[in-house]
Amino acid sequence: MNHKTGEELESQARAELAILLERKAAGERISPKDRLAIPAQEMPAQDPLERSRNVEEVALGYGECQARLEAERCLGCKNEPCVSGCPVQVPIPRFIAEIQKGDFKAAADIIKETNLLPAVCGRVCPQEKQCQAECTVGKGLKSVEKAVAIGRLERFVADWERANGKVTTPGVKAPTGKKAAIIGSGPAGLTVAADIAREGHEVVIFEAFHKTGGVMVYGIPEFRLPKAIVQEEVNLLEKMGVKIETNFLVGRTRTIMELLDQDGYDAVFIGVGAGLPKFLGCPGENYVGVFSANEYLTRANLMKAYDADQADTPMFKSKIVTVIGGGNVAMDAARMALRLGAEQVHVIYRRTRDEMPARAEEVGHAMEEGVVFNFLRNPDKILGDDKGRVTGLELRKFELGEPDDSGRRSPVAIAGSEYVFDCDTVIVALGNESNPLLTRTTSDLKVDRRGRIVVDEGQKTSLERVYAGGDIVLGAATVILAMGEGRRAAASINKLLSVS
After folding, report:
1. With 366 labelled, which of 51, 288, 467, 488 sits at a CA distance of 20 to 30 A?
2. End-to-end CA distance of the chain
3. Beta strands, E only, 145-209
4. How far is it, in rounded angstroms, from Cα 129 to Cα 443?
5. DSSP secondary structure string, 118-140?
6. Sign (positive/negative) of CA torsion 296, 301, 304, 308?
7. Contact in structure between 247 and 331 (CB atoms under 8 Å)
C-alpha cells in the first residue's frame, strides 16, 4: 500500500477546505448530501518498513486542515446517536462543531467535561465499535470505516492543546475534609480520582508498580500510546491535588479494611485491572521461550527492554515468534516482537480475520509491518529440546462451524490435520483473569466464579464504602469501558461523601 505523507495529506485537505469555507462565507448552506461527499481523511502514518524496527508512534495525527475537513463531514444530528455509543458520554457533536469553527481549545474543553483522558482515548479506544458504529454518516455510506473519525478528532484537539501550551487544570471545589483511596492508577482509577477531586474531596491513589498508568503504561506499547502522554495526564491530576503513592501493594502493604478503619479513608475504589494471564493448558508451557503477553509487554513497555542502550531489562532473544490469540493484546505483542528484533513473527488464531476481536486498524498495521497471520490454526502442544527450550508447536487445522454465544462462528477441529511449526518463542495472548490478592485479603468481598468483583448499578461492592470498576469487574475490557465504570463509581462515591 502506498501511503501519502502527512504533508501531502494536509496540502490536499487545505485545498478542499478552502473551497468549502469560501462557500460558507458566501452564505451557501452545506447540505447533508454535500457533507456525505467529503472524503474521509486518511491518518498519516510512519512507513511500515521503517516503523517495524522502531518504537516511535505509528499514527502521526491529523494536521489542522485535515481535522477541520473531517469535522465538516459531521451532520450534527439532533438525536446524537454517537453519544449513546460512548461509555463516558462525550458531547461529540458539540466538540466537533467547535473544530469546524477552528476553535480547538473550546473543543478540548468540551471533551473534558466528561473525559479527562482524550489524548489516550483518541489513540486506543475501539471507536469503530462504539461512537463511530452509531454515526449517521457511516450508516448512510454503509461502512463504519467511512463514519466521522471521532477518535482521530479527539486525539487532534488533545494534542493541539498540549502542543500549544493551552492545557488548563480543571476547577476543584473547596476542601470538604473527606478523603477517598483509589487502588490502581489505570484508566478506571484515574477517572474516579479526577471526578472525586473536582468535588473537593482529598484523593490518594495507591499504585503497586513504580509508575502510574496501569495497562496504559505496562500493556499498551509506545508505538500506539507514548508514555509521555499518559504521564502528562497523571501530572494534571496532581495539579488538581490528587496524591499518588507508588510501590504500594494494597493487600500486602495495607489491606482495604486497614485503609478504612485505621487510616481514616471515607471510601475506597478498587480499580486494579485483571492482571492474571490465562494460558493454553497444553503440554510444554513450562519450556524456556514461553511467555504470557502480559509479561512480555510489561518487560518491553514498563521496563523499556526495547531500549537496550538505556535499560538492562532481561529479554529473551527470538528468531521466530508465534503469538497465540486474535485480540488487541496479541497484535501489540506481535508488533513489539518485530521491534525487539525477531526475524519472523506469526499470529496463530483459530478463527479467520473476520472473527478477530482486535481493532481492524491494528490488524492492518501488523500486516503492513510484516506479521504473518496463520488463521484456522491452534496449538495442541508446545515442543522443546532436551534442554527445555522451545523448538516449535504442534498445530491443528480448524474450520468454522456454527456461531457461539458471542456471535462468532465456532472453530471445529479437522481430524488428522496436525503438523509441526518451527519456532523458538511462544507468546500466549488469550486474555487475563482477576488477581486473587485483594479478595483473599478482604473478607466478605463478593466475587463471581471467575474472581471478578460483584458490584451493583452504582459500582458498589458487597462491602460498605467500597466500590470497584474496570477490568476487575468486567474482565479484560477496554480503556473507555473502564473509564465509564469509573465515572459511575465516582458519582456514587461523591453522593456518599456529600451526606456522610
Report:
1. 288
2. 61
3. 179-183, 202-206
4. 38
5. HHHHHHHS-GGGTTGGG-HHHHH
6. positive
7. no
How many angstroms separate the CA atoms of 318 and 22, rounded?
Answer: 57
Q: What is the distance between the alpha carbons of residues 133 and 150, in angstroms, rounded to a whole number?
A: 10
Question: Mutual orientation of helices 328-339 and 360-369 as an angle, nearest 10°?
Answer: 20
- Residue by residue, pLDDT tens for the chain (500 residues) are 457 899 999 999 999 999 999 999 999 999 999 999 999 999 999 999 999 999 999 999 999 999 999 999 999 999 999 999 999 999 999 999 999 999 999 999 999 999 989 999 999 999 999 999 999 999 999 999 999 999 999 999 999 999 999 999 999 999 999 999 999 999 999 999 999 999 999 999 999 999 999 999 999 999 999 999 999 989 999 999 999 999 999 999 999 999 999 999 999 999 998 888 899 999 999 999 999 999 999 999 988 888 888 888 888 999 999 999 999 999 999 999 999 999 999 999 999 999 999 999 999 999 999 999 999 999 999 999 999 999 999 999 999 998 888 787 889 999 999 999 999 999 999 988 888 888 888 989 999 988 899 999 999 999 999 999 999 999 877 888 999 999 999 999 999 999 86
Dihedral, CA of residue 459, residue 463, residue 466 and residue 471, to nearest 10: -50
CA dihedral sign of residues 178, 182, 188, 193: positive
Bridge-based pairing state of the strands 179-183 and 202-206: parallel
Q: Around Cβ 47, how many Cβ atoms within 10 Å?
A: 11
d(CA 81, CA 184): 32
C-alpha–C-alpha distance, residues 133 and 127, integer Å: 7
Pairing of strands 320-324, 425-428: parallel
Pairing state between β 432-433 and 276-277: antiparallel
Assess whether 301 and 381 both reside in one domain. yes
> Angle 328-339/293-301 helices, nearest 10 degrees?
50
Instruction: Sort 268 into a burial class: Cβ within 10 Å, 0-12 / 13-18 / 19+.
Output: buried
Other Cβ atoms less than 10 A from the Cβ of 146: the count is 18
**Residue 468 has which C-alpha cell?**
470497584
State whether 336 and 195 are in the same domain: no
pTM (2 d.p.): 0.92
Residue 77: strand, helix, or coil: coil
Residue among 91, 109, 95 at smallest CA distance from 67: 95
- For residue 173, is it within any domain? no
Write out the residue range of the structural domain in which residue 135 sits.
Answer: 6-163
* Residue 206 amino acid letter: F
Task: Indicate whether 417 and 478 sit together in one domain.
Answer: no
What is the rounded CA–CA span in Å between residue 476 and residue 91?
A: 26
Same domain, 357 and 234: no
Q: How many domains are there within the chain? A: 3
- How many CB atoms neighbour CB 450 within 10 A? 9
